[in-house]
Amino acid sequence: MKIELSIENKTCTKCKQVFPKTKEFFYISGIYLSTNCKSCDVKRTSRYKIENKDKQDAWVNKHMSLEINYVYQSLRRPFKNSSINPKPRKNGWQRIGWKPEITLGEMYEELILHIQLMKDKFPETDGRLCRYCEEPWTYIRSSGKGIRNLKNFSIDRFDATQTYKKGNIIFCCIKCNTTKTDSLKKDWLKYLEIDKELTKEKV
Hints:
Elements: E1 9-11, E2 18-20, E3 28-29, E4 32-33, H1 38-51, H2 53-64, H3 67-76, H4 81-84, H5 104-121, E5 153-157, E6 169-173, H6 174-180, H7 185-202
Antiparallel strand pairs: 1-2, 3-4, 5-6
């Protein structure tokens, strides 16, 4: 059911400021607007996470480490505005943003095709294998900053000069994704060329 909000004013019960009664300023729960404005709700949530870190960590480990939640969050990440239009860091460095040429639904379909491909290749597995190292990926989530499980599920752009689109999406583990980084096919061919040269030099 689509919710139509009339343009009226609503007072935030926390900061007492008056805002238009729209979803731009208040979160919607069912058919009701939150009693606090978005700014106050965000501050309240952040304060709760800090004051209840152990409880928050336990919740994250229990719920976000489930395959359905972890995969969903990973698949939708390329579609976030922060991924498409990244802000520059404090040191001035700014990574390239990529606007996907594929929908979230199509991305999920690509994942299903990948799983079937790996199941056909390795019948004794469930198909949830990294395309590069062909090892099982995991979904271990931790709320600790900077902590990553390198065997976790990840999504890579095979050709680093192109965006997320059919034919350029690889499902892999974080370790392989990080190892490959933005290297290109011409780089790999050069590495192989040097490998051959080194082999001849040893003879």
